[in-house]
Write a structure and sequence with these properties.
Elements (H helix, E strand, L loop, with lengths): L45 H5 L9 E4 L17 H8 L3 E4 L1 H4 L9 E4 L2 E4 L6 H17 L4 E3 L11 E3 L7 E3 L3 H8 L3 E3 L1 H7 L2
Parallel strand pairs: 1-2, 1-5, 5-8
Antiparallel strand pairs: 3-4, 6-7
Helix pairs in contact: 4-5
Length: 200
């Protein structure tokens, strides 16, 4: 599964212009406080007992490619600068339902046709798409998240528009598999433009 939260190291290098790919094992624990000899009172908050600052609570799910992770079908990212910042701050949880459902990067492009996720070479990959969607929903529930910022026109993440299944580039109104599942469970889905409209 993709890293839902960003690496914890304070000196994490800045992302490349078109991708931010956390290194394996980058979610290592923060260093112990040098004042470990002090023993806070029993029942103190976790950050008081460990000497670490409390971690911020994420407020949204976000398509991992929008967070700068190179996970699109073509192996690229589609970063939104503000969303990359929120991801790095731990305020956005990155999800790529297709990768989380077991598909590789890069992969054959897929489009929806008759409610099924079909690859350009004719394979029915609906089980992988639905498995990844279920993981996204579970993550949202675990963190009590009610907002998802998802990539428009994706067969997983499209919120208002998707490709028509002919692989001709024609767009039609519709929802991706993950977007539809999240909305069915009361989670608000916005695309890139909708996210920009939410910003102050």
């Amino acid at each position: 599964m993709l890293h839902a939260t960003p690496p914890a190291e304070p000196d994490m290098p800045a992302p490349a212009p078109d991708a931010l790919t956390p290194a394996p094992g980058a979610l290592a624990a923060m260093p112990q406080s040098s004042s470990a000899a002090q023993t806070p009172a029993a029942g103190a908050p976790e950050h008081k007992r460990t000497g670490q600052a409390p971690q911020p609570a994420p407020f949204c799910l976000a398509s991992a490619c929008l967070c700068g992770l190179a996970c699109r079908w073509d192996g690229r990212a589609a970063p939104l600068e503000r969303l990359v910042e929120l991801y790095r701050q731990g305020l956005a949880l990155a999800v790529c339902p297709e990768v989380d459902g077991g598909l590789p990067v890069p992969r054959m492009p897929c489009e929806l046709r008759g409610g099924r996720a079909l690859s350009r070479d004719g394979r029915d990959l609906t089980p992988q798409f639905t498995a990844g969607a279920a993981q996204a929903l579970q993550l949202a529930r675990e963190h009590n998240i009610r907002l998802a910022v998802l990539k428009e026109r994706s067969p997983s993440c499209g919120g208002t528009e998707i490709y028509d299944g002919s692989f001709s580039g024609r767009r039609v109104p519709g929802k991706g598999i993950t977007a539809a599942l999240l909305e069915a469970h009361g989670i608000r889905v916005v695309n890139e433009d909708g996210f920009a409209a939410l910003l102050p």
